[in-house]
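Lecture notes, unit on binding sites. The following record was shown on slide 14. It pairs a sequence with biotin.
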Amino acid sequence: MEDVKQNTLNEEKILNFLGIYQDFDWELSIFDEIESTNDYLLNFANVDKFNICLAECQTKGRGRNLKEWQSPKYENIYMSLGFSTENELNRFNAFSLVTALAVHDVLAIEDINTEIKWPNDIYLNNKKVGGILLETITKDEKTLIVVGIGLNIYMKDNSKIDREWTSLALEIEDFNLDRNKIISKLANEILFSKKEFEKEGFDRFAKKFNSLNYLKNKEVSLTNFDCEKGTALDINLDGTLNVKVGERIKKISSGEVSLYLTD
Ligand code: BTN
């Protein structure tokens, strides 16, 4: 716990690490404990700013598909970013994939090589190390995007998680990265990606996503289609995943199905 304490969330450090973006219109809120950082921004984000909400722990952390997100104190990153966009809401769904790429890129700078399990799970050495939850709401006549990132950093045991998981500290010897630094880099990268995404859509990111596509050529089953089995292929420009079922290629959209690896 000593190591962890040295890295408690620290506003000054985070702003310092933001470097040239320090003076950007950030609205940074840090909590010792909160129900969910996504919920906080859905309720209280300032639509005219780029909001960051962080917490040392969450009591009602939410994952995709109504799952609970385990959020023990000091151990991980629980971070949400909230901003408005002029872009069409539907189009922004693929931004969760773009956020996953941003997480990959920030960790790659530290020589941590993750893959992305479509649509937005971050994988390290075949285990889930993080996930993204994108939610949208209309507020003050503007479209607000809230993108939540859960990234396991120091967590070493947690019997409440019902799937294979890992953390950076479990995978990397002598791991000692300051969470504040990772958070600032993520905020920068996501801000940059948002601007690119608004200009060019997912096209600009699709090739890179495909190069990190954990599911590619793996056997999967489609839970919304009577558990049909198929082979995952590439991601399309609209963010859907191609799955070869028999001789047919099905385009799967993340809202429609969950995919389970068959082995
Ligand atoms: C998933 O893989 O199911 C997505 C997990 C997203 C968890 C993060 S933690 C910060 C933010 N607040 C939440 O309640 N959820 C997201």
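Take-home: The longest strand covers residues 127-139.
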